[in-house]
Amino acid sequence: MKEVDELHVIDPSHDGTAHAQIAPVPRVSIQAFCETAHFAELVQHAAADRHLQKAHVKHHMGGAAAAVEAFRNAPTPNVVVIETNQDRGAILEHLDALAEFCDAGTKVVVAGRVNDITLYRELLTRGVSEYLVEPFGVLDFIRAISDLYATAGADPLGRIIAVYGAKGGVGASTVAHNIAWSISRGLDVATVVADLDLGFGTGGLDFNQDPPQGIAEAVFAPDRLDGNVVDRLLSKCSEKLSLLAAPATLDRLYDFDETTFDAIIDVLRATVPVIVLDVPHVWTGWARRLLIGADDVVIVAAPDLGNLRNAKNIVDTLKAARPNDDRPKLVINYVGVPKRPEISVSDFCKAVELSSSAEIPFDPKLFGTAANNGQMIAEVESGGKIAMTFADLARVVTGRSEMKRGKRSLFDPILEKLGRKKAS
Question: What is this structure's pTM?
Answer without folding.
Answer: 0.81
